Amino acid sequence: MVAKTPEPLTVLYEADETAWLDAMSELIAERRLEDLDYVHLGEYLKDMARSDRRKVESRLAILMMHILKWLHQENKRTPSWRRTISAQRMELARLFKSGALRKHAESVLAETYAEAVELAADETDLPEETFPGECPWTLEQLLSAEVLAD
Fold first, then answer.
1. In angstroms, rounded to a whole number, what is the distance separating the alpha carbons of residues 127 and 130?
2. Taking phi first (over 0 means left), then psi (-120 to 50 degrees means alpha), and beta for anything else, what does residue 131 get?
3. DSSP assignments along 77-137, one per residue
4. Which are the contacts of 67, defined by CB distance < 8 A and separation ≥ 6?
5. 131 contacts 121 by C-beta, under 8 angstroms
6. How far apart are the C-alpha atoms of 148 and 145, rounded to whole Å?
7. What residues does each domain of the chain span?
8. Residue 7, H or E segment
9. What's the farthest any 2 CA atoms get from each other in the chain?
């Protein structure tokens, strides 16, 4: 039995992912669905979704960590903290244009808050017990500029 040689799209995927994406896009535009590299396409889409979810979780944790620092270290507030909070809020709002990512953020809010508390405690040298045990904000509140109101 002779081993089958790899399909050109499979080879392209390994050699040049961007060229492979262009080829996939072209095949879809031409409705040549039978020629798609379904194995790698499925992997690629799964990886993209996982990456988007991780990005949301990371930005959410950073946002909440900086808000916690802002609220619990009034004497150390800096304009850079405010800018970080604003930048994270804006980027999350941009990411949430996809309803699925907003739903993901809502589903991991409590878990991500726990990470934010750990990060805030580490950065401030305050005990974790200093911070609320449960997330005191809704996603909408976190995305609002009012979250910094004292």
1. 6
2. beta
3. --HHHHHHHHHHHHHHHHHTTSHHHHHHHHHHHHHHHHHHHHHHHHHH---GGGS-SS---
4. 85, 137, 142, 147, 148
5. yes
6. 6
7. 1-36, 51-148
8. none
9. 75
Task: Give me 89's structure tokens.
Answer: 């809020």
Instruction: Label residue 136 exposed, middle or buried (CB < 10 Å: 0-12, 13-18, 19+).
Output: middle
| Whether 40 contacts 92, CB under 8 Å | no
**24-33 as b/e, with b when 16 or more CB fall inside 10 Å?**
beebeeeeee
Q: Whole-prediction pTM value?
A: 0.82
Site of tokens 């997330």: 135
Task: Give yes or no for a contact between 61 and 116, defined as CB atoms under 8 angstroms apart.
Answer: yes
pLDDT truncated to tens, each residue of the chain (150 aa)?
444 444 688 888 888 999 999 999 999 999 999 999 999 999 999 999 999 999 999 999 999 999 999 999 999 998 998 999 999 999 999 999 978 999 999 999 999 999 999 999 999 999 999 999 999 999 999 999 888 875
